[in-house]
Amino acid sequence: MAGEERSGERPAYFLEAENIPEAFEKAMKKVWFDGVPIKTQYDKPGDPESKDAAVLIRVKNPFAQPRFHRTFADGIGGIAEYVQEVVNGAHDYWISSPENIIEEVKTGKKKDTKWTYTYHQRLFEAPNPIGEPENQIETMINNLAKDTYSRRANAVTWIQYIDGHLSDPPCLQRLWGRIFEDENGKKYLNFDSEWRSRDLKKAWFENAIAITTLQKRVAEAISEKRNEEILVGPYTDFSNSLHIYGSYFREMEGDPEKGVKTFFESLSSRPFSSDNALNATSRTYTSEQVRELFINDGCGKGLENMLKREKDMPEKARALVEKDLQRLKDGSYIP
What we know:
Layout: E1 12-17, H1 20-34, E2 36-38, E3 50-59, E4 68-69, H2 75-88, H3 98-107, H4 119-124, H5 136-146, E5 154-156, H6 160-163, E6 172-181, E7 187-195, E8 198-199, H7 200-226, E9 230-244, H8 249-253, H9 263-268, E10 284-285, H10 287-295, H11 303-309, H12 315-330
Parallel strand pairs: 1-3, 7-9, 8-9
Antiparallel strand pairs: 2-3, 3-9, 4-10, 5-6, 6-7
């Protein structure tokens, strides 16, 4: 298999796609066939080395249809809940106390099973040792509303004096946006994300859906402030380490003796898209096809189930989730 030779170099690749599912499939092929083997800190005894590469992915139109890939571990209802976690802070209340996080930084030992961060917390309520928490997304919106060509619309998640000492630090490092105008005068918010480490098979896709949902809401907020339409432009996604873990290799390689197809044989045996939402043979969904699954996927996930299950969710976050649920039902929020 290509990519097995060891040169001491990490390969770096650029991929471009029209939509998110196409980008996901191209990335899977590139990392699987051209990534290099390397160990990870999450390997279990007997796991093969992961496949790894630095990958820059440009999605020309992140809301082009189809937008959702079916080959995803947590299902569409799980993605719906993850979007709420990133965009509306639905799980910020799962974060441990500052005292316990400081204790982990000092001793290397966790005092509880709670999280040490969420992306929403770091972006919307970034810890600030000299004042109130910083809403970096609000600052990004204000900068671009004032000067659409600003290069200062930047939001970071990494806090070195904390994250450099944690066992599970943030993968997302930075968001950046800038507005570009086409020849007809239409303005588009171009959005970038940078990641230190990424599980391609089980995390990249849901990350892309959540971050581009945030991109759209930033564009809408700028539109409101400027009283002019700001459209969603290209999404550019860079990972220092985009990898397929060795523990996934059995599924990737299949089992020819038992008639189990490889991951890519399974993909190629099905059409990329279908107009019929009930056609389980296609590889993708459109946004409209998943709208009901975002509400309730029939398997215990989706926003209705999230609100029933998480009775301790703070009122502020609950109100935002309820608002998105209502918008899903009336059709004003199309995932």
